[in-house]
Amino acid sequence: PRVAVIVVAAGSGTRLGAGSPKAFVGIDAHTILRHALRGVFDAPEAQVIVVAPDDRVGDATTEALGAAGGRRDLVSVVAGGATRQESVAAGLAAVWADVEIVLVHDAARALTPPDVFARVIDAVAEGSDAVIPVLPVVDTLKRVADDVVVEPVDRSVLAAAQTPQGFRRAVLDGAYRDAAADHTDDAALLQSAGTQVRTVPGDERAFKITTTADLEHARALVEPVPR
Ligand code: CTP
Ligand code: MG
């Protein structure tokens, strides 16, 4: 395929505090990773690279093959690193030679609908080097220091960044080759390298499972509505 999706799932889930790495925590009968991969396999066809904690590569392979159905040939699983950026770098090293567009997706955004992937892929295919899904900020924001409000912040100029983030493969490879500092997402790394980052509409269901409240929200969304 022309597209690869790197699903980063090598984090420990400290804030969730579930006792096992976050990607392997159950939402319902299925794990966060399995749900995330369902969305990936329902999206346009791509090589799928799962980046797992180094002692969970076997478990991640089981989840990936389960989600892949008949497309086991598309799956690779590699061990991640100590930071998200290191985990993405490990995934990038496994991208097949003919791939032109690379998406990087947080496994923790387990309920991301397939059409978000399609929007991001289309925008890169149309010529953007870097594309991220965003949502408008809904909260009233304040700049604070030492428990005191310094000033209100105009939310209309802000956006909340989600994943999958999509990149022209050569541009992402180059940025990772030259990366010095650690960045919280790939768009920040690319932007620091001077690449223009375009936005497309995100989706509320692409929220990141970070805390127990987020996990409860995910559980409510996947639960069949009682009748
Ligand atoms: N991630 C990763 N490798 C790391 C750190 C994070 O692959 N060394 C992945 C996580 O698995 C997750 C995504 O990056 O899918 C976003 O990270 P985050 O939500 O912060 O997950 P964790 O780092 O696992 O959680 P926490 O920060 O609470 O420990
Ligand atoms: Mg983290």
UniProtKB/TrEMBL annotation:
Functional pathway: Isoprenoid biosynthesis; isopentenyl diphosphate biosynthesis via DXP pathway; isopentenyl diphosphate from 1-deoxy-D-xylulose 5-phosphate: step 4/6; Isoprenoid biosynthesis; isopentenyl diphosphate biosynthesis via DXP pathway; isopentenyl diphosphate from 1-deoxy-D-xylulose 5-phosphate: step 2/6
Reactions the enzyme catalyzes: 4-CDP-2-C-methyl-D-erythritol 2-phosphate = 2-C-methyl-D-erythritol 2,4-cyclic diphosphate + CMP; 2-C-methyl-D-erythritol 4-phosphate + CTP + H(+) = 4-CDP-2-C-methyl-D-erythritol + diphosphate
Keywords: Isoprene biosynthesis, Lyase, Metal-binding, Multifunctional enzyme, Nucleotidyltransferase, Transferase
Keyword Lyase belongs to the record: yes
2-C-methyl-D-erythritol 4-phosphate cytidylyltransferase, as annotated region: 1-227
GO molecular function: 2-C-methyl-D-erythritol 4-phosphate cytidylyltransferase activity
Residues carrying the site annotation Transition state stabilizer: 15, 22
Entry cofactors: a divalent metal cation
Keyword check for DNA repair: no
Marked site positions, Positions MEP for the nucleophilic attack: 155, 208
EC number in record: 2.7.7.60, 4.6.1.12
Family: In the C-terminal section; belongs to the IspF family. In the N-terminal section; belongs to the IspD/TarI cytidylyltransferase family. IspD subfamily.
Function field: Bifunctional enzyme that catalyzes the formation of 4-diphosphocytidyl-2-C-methyl-D-erythritol from CTP and 2-C-methyl-D-erythritol 4-phosphate (MEP) (IspD), and catalyzes the conversion of 4-diphosphocytidyl-2-C-methyl-D-erythritol 2-phosphate (CDP-ME2P) to 2-C-methyl-D-erythritol 2,4-cyclodiphosphate (ME-CPP) with a corresponding release of cytidine 5-monophosphate (CMP) (IspF).
Record protein name field: Bifunctional enzyme IspD/IspF
Span covered, complete protein: 7 to 233 of 396
